[in-house]
């Protein structure tokens, strides 16, 4: 099963992608996580991506597309995957489609988690992330069991620099300008499914499971 998660930053894509990956035993492929691990590891790619990420802008397609295609050609992705944060532009979607077509494959579903901007701004203020395993939490809606610590690996949680209030509005603007057109793109492809993302994480996950069971 090959799944794409769509939705504004802060809509809950990452949280739901992790749950889908666990439930269906497929890798969770997050381009944001791959960039962050490259930044942490001091790689060339990380150095090139850092400024864009810190400013809440998209990393250029030339850097992003190759990195993602490389990741999904790894053996663990053979049985499918859930893409979280990719594609974010039409050229990324086109490149993915082309690369898959060459192998006789296609994306099964694009799941759009819909949340109005006003909710997003409130949500992102409370977001915390694990710098080690990539799990995400929310102080109000999905707190970790032990305050400030990751449930999965015990590491100390952080506020990502791009979740800081001043960057959030900019990321939403980028989303509407560059990523939102993907909704129509996948609707035309006939694989878009829309989910109300204002519900609790459990309710959103149940709705997603219902959609996925139809594939
Ligand atoms: P995320 O963790 O998905 O919110 O991604 C964090 C940041 O990484 C984004 O704000 C972008 O700067 C960058 N990024 C992640 N995925 C992509 C992508 N597909 N295209 C361009 N930039 C991306």
Q: Radius of gyration, rounded?
A: 16 Å
- Overall residue-averaged pLDDT value: 94
Identify the overall geometry.
globular
Q: Indicate how many domains the architecture comprises.
A: 1
* Sheet with the most strands: spatial strand order: 2-3-1-4-7
The share of residues in extended strands comes to 5-15%
| Corresponding CATH superfamily | P-loop containing nucleotide triphosphate hydrolases
The distinct ligands, each listed once, are:
adenosine monophosphate
Oligomer: single chain
Give the terminus-to-terminus CA distance. 8 Å
Number of DSSP helices? Answer: 9
Query: What CATH architecture would you give?
Result: 3-Layer(aba) Sandwich
CATH domain class name: Alpha Beta
Q: Structural class, judged by helices and strands?
A: alpha/beta
Number of strands: 7
Helix content: 40-55%
Q: Can you walk through the features of this model?
A:
The protein is an alpha/beta fold and 215 residues long. The chain has a single domain (2-27, 74-206), classed as P-loop containing nucleotide triphosphate hydrolases (Rossmann fold). The chain contains 9 helices and 7 strands; from the N terminus they run βαβαααβαβαββααβα. It has helices at residues 13-24, 31-40, 44-55, 61-72, 90-102, 117-125, 165-179, 181-189, 201-212, and strands at 2-6, 28-30, 81-84, 109-114, 127-129, 136-138, 192-196. It has a 5-stranded parallel β-sheet with strand order 2-3-1-4-7, sandwiched between helices. A two-stranded antiparallel ribbon has the order 5-6. The chain starts with a strand and ends with a helix. The model has no long low-confidence stretch (mean pLDDT 94). The protein binds adenosine monophosphate. Adenosine monophosphate is lined by residues 9, 30-32, 35, 52-53, 56-59, 64, 85-88, 92, 162, 171.
């Amino acid at each position: 099963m090959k799944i794409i998660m769509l939705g504004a930053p802060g809509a809950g894509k990452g949280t739901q992608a992790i749950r889908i990956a666990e439930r269906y035993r497929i890798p969770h492929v997050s381009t944001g996580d791959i960039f962050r691990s490259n930044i942490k590891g001091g790689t060339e790619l990380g150095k090139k991506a850092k400024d864009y990420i810190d400013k809440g802008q998209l990393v250029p397609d030339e850097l992003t597309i190759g990195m993602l295609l490389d990741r999904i050609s790894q053996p663990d992705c053979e049985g499918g995957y859930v893409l979280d944060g990719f594609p974010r532009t039409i050229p990324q979607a086109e490149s993915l489609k082309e690369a898959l077509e060459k192998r006789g494959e296609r994306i099964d579903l694009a799941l759009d988690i819909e949340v109005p901007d006003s909710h997003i701004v409130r949500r992102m203020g409370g977001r915390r992330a694990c710098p080690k395993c990539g799990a995400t939490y929310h102080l109000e809606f999905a707190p970790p069991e032990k305050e400030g610590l990751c449930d999965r690996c015990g590491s100390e949680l952080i506020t990502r620099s791009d979740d800081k209030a001043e960057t959030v509005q900019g990321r939403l603007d980028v989303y509407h300008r560059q990523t939102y057109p993907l909704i129509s793109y996948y609707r035309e492809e006939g694989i878009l499914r829309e989910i109300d993302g204002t519900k609790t994480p459990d309710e959103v996950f149940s709705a997603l499971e219902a959609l996925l069971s139809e594939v």
